[in-house]
C-alpha cells in the first residue's frame, strides 16, 4: 500500500512539474509615461483629469504609493529601467544631450549619452528566452549627430521592431503631436491625427498580427505628457468647458490642453486593455504603468515639493500600477519604496526565468510583494545622483526607511526630511537631527564610491555674473568605454 502511494505521489509530482514547465510565459505590456505627475490620475487623487481606464487598471492590480523614478529627468530613468542599474553606475546621468552651462561653480563630469552594447538589457534578456519584443514611442537614449550613434536605436538594443523611437526627447516632426510626425516606422496618417492615437494604432495592429503562441514584451514609451502641450481639439473644448466654475480644491493644473493629453493617454490604455481581452490573452499578460520623472508643472504633483528637474519628491515620486493576473490581489496597495531599477528582475522572475544579478545590479524583484508573500524588500535605502545643472543644482540624495537626505554639491548644504510625517518636505530637520543627517551622508558617500559615481569638479571658468548662462550644445564625439 505504501509502495502504491509512493508511486502515485511520484506520478502526480511529475505531472505537476510537467504542467509547470509547459505553462506559458506571461506577456508584458510596459507603459511608460513622460513627465507624469504624482497627481495626474484619478486613482492618485486627480479630479479635473478623467482617467477611467487607468483607474480601472489600478482597481485590477496593485497601486504603489512609494514608487520612484531613478532620476529627476528622463534619459537616466529610462536607462535604469532597461539596465536595472542606477544611472550613477552606468554614467548616464542627465537627459541627452543635457544643458551646457560653462560658467557655473562646478564643471559637470564627462558623462555617457548612450547604453553600452556590452550590457544585456531587459528586452535582450527576454529575447534570449523566446520573447518577441516591440518598442513604441520615445527612446531618447542616443545623441543626435555622428552616424555611429545610429547603432543605438531600439532595434540595436533588443527590440525586434521600433515605431517612433529616435534621438528626440519630444515630438519635433513637422506637426509635432499632430500629423505629419516624421518618425521611424510610423506613417504620417491623415491630417489632424494625434500622435498618441497613431502610436496606439500601431500597438493594436502588432498585437493583432503577431503569433500569440510566443510570449511578448510590448514596451510603449509615450511621448505624452511632454511638451509641447497640445491635444485633439474636441478634448481641449471638453476641458475648457469643464474648467468653468470647477472647484479646484486640490490645486490641479487646469490647462485644458494638458487635460486633453491625459485623457488621450487614458484612451490609449483602455484600447490596449480591450485588445488584450479580445485576443483572449489578458489573463496571461502583465501590465505595468509608470512614469520617467515628475510632471513639468508644480500643480501636477498633488502637493509634493517641486517638479521635474528639481531634487525633491515632486520630481521623482511616480504613480506605479502593476497588474499581474492571478497573482496580484486586485485593488491592493503597496507602501514599500521601489525604484525603476526593479522592473528588470521583477519581470524576469514573473516569467520564471533565471535572474541576471550581474546585469540588473541595483534592482530587486518585486514578485514576492506582488504575490502578497512579503511586505518588505531586502534593502533599506534608495539613491539618486545628479551631478548636473537643471532647475536644481548638482546634488545627491538617499531615502533611508522614512528619512530622506539631499546633499548639494556646490557648498555641501544638506536637507533632511521625515517623509512619513512630512511627505511634502516642508521642514528641514538637519539642525534638529544632526546625527541622522551625518549617518545618511555617510551612507550616501559610501554608495557613491561603491558604484563609481562621477562627481562634478571645481570650474576654473566660474563666473558668478554669468551663472545660468547657457552655451550652445555640441554633438558629442563617439568614444569607446
UniProtKB/TrEMBL annotation:
In this chain, composition skew of type Basic residues spans 471-481
UniProt keyword Acyltransferase, yes or no: no
Q: Which Pfam families match?
A: Sulfatase (PF00884)
| Alphabetical list of Gene3D superfamilies matching this protein | 3.30.1120.10, Alkaline Phosphatase, subunit A
The EC number(s) attached to this protein equal 3.1.6.1
**What region holds the Sulfatase N-terminal domain?**
26-352
Cofactor(s) required, per the database record: Ca(2+)
> Is Isomerase found in the keyword set?
no
Q: Which GO terms describe its molecular function?
A: arylsulfatase activity; metal ion binding
Superkingdom in the source lineage: Bacteria
Skewed-composition ranges (Basic and acidic residues): 460-470
Q: What broad class of enzyme is this?
A: hydrolase
* Region annotated Disordered, chain positions: 448-481
What are the UniProt keywords, alphabetically? Calcium, Hydrolase, Metal-binding, Signal
By its UniProt entry, which InterPro entries does this protein fall under?
Alkaline_phosphatase_core_sf, Sulfatase, Sulfatase_N
Signal sequence bounds: 1-20
Q: Which family does it belong to?
A: Belongs to the sulfatase family.
Task: Please give the name of this protein.
Answer: Arylsulfatase
Amino acid at each position: 500500500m505504501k509502495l502504491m502511494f509512493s508511486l502515485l505521489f511520484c506520478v502526480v509530482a511529475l505531472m505537476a512539474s510537467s504542467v509547470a514547465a509547459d505553462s506559458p510565459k506571461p506577456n508584458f505590456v510596459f507603459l511608460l509615461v513622460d513627465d507624469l505627475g504624482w497627481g495626474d490620475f484619478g486613482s492618485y487623487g486627480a479630479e479635473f483629469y478623467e482617467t477611467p481606464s487607468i483607474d480601472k487598471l489600478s482597481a485590477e492590480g496593485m497601486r504603489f504609493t512609494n514608487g520612484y523614478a531613478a532620476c529627476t529627468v528622463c534619459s537616466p530613468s529610462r536607462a535604469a529601467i532597461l539596465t536595472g542599474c542606477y544611472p550613477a553606475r552606468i554614467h548616464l546621468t542627465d537627459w541627452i544631450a543635457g544643458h551646457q552651462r560653462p560658467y557655473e561653480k562646478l564643471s559637470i563630469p564627462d558623462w555617457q549619452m548612450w547604453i553600452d552594447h556590452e550590457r544585456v538589457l531587459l528586452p535582450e534578456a527576454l529575447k534570449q528566452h523566446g520573447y518577441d519584443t516591440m518598442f513604441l514611442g520615445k527612446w531618447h537614449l542616443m545623441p543626435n549627430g555622428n552616424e555611429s550613434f545610429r547603432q543605438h536605436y531600439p532595434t540595436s538594443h533588443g527590440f525586434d521592431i521600433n515605431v517612433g523611437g529616435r534621438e528626440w526627447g519630444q515630438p519635433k516632426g513637422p506637426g509635432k503631436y499632430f500629423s505629419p510626425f516624421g518618425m521611424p516606422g510610423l506613417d504620417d496618417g491623415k491630417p489632424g491625427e494625434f500622435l498618441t492615437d497613431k502610436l496606439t494604432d500601431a500597438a493594436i495592429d502588432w498585437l493583432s498580427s503577431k503569433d500569440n503562441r510566443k510570449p511578448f514584451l510590448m514596451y510603449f514609451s509615450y511621448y505624452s505628457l511632454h511638451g509641447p502641450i497640445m491635444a485633439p481639439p474636441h478634448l481641449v473644448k471638453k476641458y475648457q468647458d469643464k474648467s468653468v466654475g470647477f472647484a479646484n480644491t486640490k490645486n490641479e493644473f487646469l490647462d485644458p490642453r494638458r487635460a486633453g493629453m491625459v485623457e488621450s493617454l487614458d484612451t490609449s490604455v483602455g484600447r490596449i486593455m480591450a485588445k488584450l481581452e479580445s485576443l483572449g490573452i489578458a489573463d496571461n499578460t502583465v501590465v505595468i504603468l509608470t512614469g520617467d520623472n515628475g510632471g513639468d508643472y508644480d500643480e501636477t504633483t498633488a502637493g509634493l515639493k517641486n517638479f521635474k528637474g528639481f531634487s525633491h519628491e515632486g520630481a521623482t515620486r511616480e504613480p506605479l500600477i502593476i497588474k499581474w493576473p492571478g497573482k496580484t490581489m486586485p485593488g491592493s496597495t503597496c507602501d514599500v519604496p521601489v525604484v525603476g531599477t526593479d522592473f528588470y528582475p521583477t519581470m524576469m522572475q514573473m516569467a520564471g526565468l533565471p535572474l541576471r544579478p550581474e546585469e540588473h545590479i541595483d534592482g530587486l524583484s518585486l514578485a514576492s510583494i506582488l504575490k502578497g508573500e512579503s511586505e518588505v524588500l531586502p534593502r533599506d535605502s534608495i539613491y539618486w545622483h545628479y551631478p548636473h545643472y537643471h532647475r536644481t543644482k548638482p546634488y545627491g540624495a538617499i531615502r533611508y526607511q522614512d528619512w530622506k537626505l539631499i546633499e548639494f554639491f556646490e557648498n555641501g548644504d544638506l536637507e533632511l526630511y521625515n517623509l512619513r510625517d512630512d511627505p511634502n518636505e516642508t521642514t528641514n530637520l538637519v539642525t534638529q537631527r544632526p546625527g541622522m543627517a551625518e549617518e545618511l551622508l555617510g551612507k550616501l558617500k559610501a554608495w557613491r564610491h561603491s558604484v563609481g559615481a562621477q562627481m562634478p569638479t571645481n570650474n576654473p571658468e566660474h563666473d558668478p555674473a554669468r551663472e545660468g548662462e547657457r552655451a550652445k550644445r555640441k554633438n558629442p564625439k563617439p568614444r569607446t568605454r
